[in-house]
């Protein structure tokens, strides 16, 4: 759709209509009260915004009288062109949900772009399934088994620093797993299917378990005081609490030496995990640099 009709609108109107589209596309629904709360406008003004969006983009939203909300229309076509980074920021951090603007920066800065971005239509199906707490049928492409048909119950997004994953219960393996969003094709929401109690996030031990890690300057690197400054350490250490399901990703991203004898060499290893036993039972600890299972008879999965 051409954006010409948008040119006649004020910037506050464009921001509100962009918010309508974000909510409907990625959450699956929007209520008048959502606009009232987000922008501090009156209910009558929110109703006019919804009517205006419906007029500008016929078929994008339908009114659900049962749920008393506007839901995604079957012929949805986006009006606004949102960069993936902006959408993911909005979904995960909850701010900046107006229309993206190209404004002059206050100070010069540079942030390298990711090499990969999830397809926004796929991401939208995943996030609607999370919000609606319903299963999602997908074609998933894995390196080990190629394309397979799966039914998953997603409940959270995970940024591992390189790629975006969705944490979900996998009905094929009967386990909670991470699925790379760029490897998902042809997602279909199964809104009429029930989610079983054992498929919900509170049953995911790796997700609900919180591990406490203490990171210190690598004992074999020079000038530990500079590492303490760079990482804002207090009394020579950095303490953090992470979900077990994300620990391996973060330790790899930060190049933390997780060997029990701080044996990794290289300038990238400026941090050392002081107690490697803190990762015992963490499934993705195998991703952590130098990690060795304390139980030689049991390999981490």
From TrEMBL:
PROSITE patterns linked: WYL
The DNA-binding transcriptional repressor CapW winged helix-turn-helix domain covers: 14-91
**One Pfam family matching this protein:** WYL
Task: Quote the protein name from its UniProt record.
Answer: WYL domain-containing protein
Q: Where is the WYL domain?
A: 121-186
User: Would you say which domain of life the source belongs to?
Assistant: Bacteria
InterPro entries for this protein: CapW-like, CapW_CTD, CBASS_pafABC_assoc_protein, WHD_CapW, WYL_dom
* Ranges of residues in domain DNA-binding transcriptional repressor CapW C-terminal dimerisation: 210-275
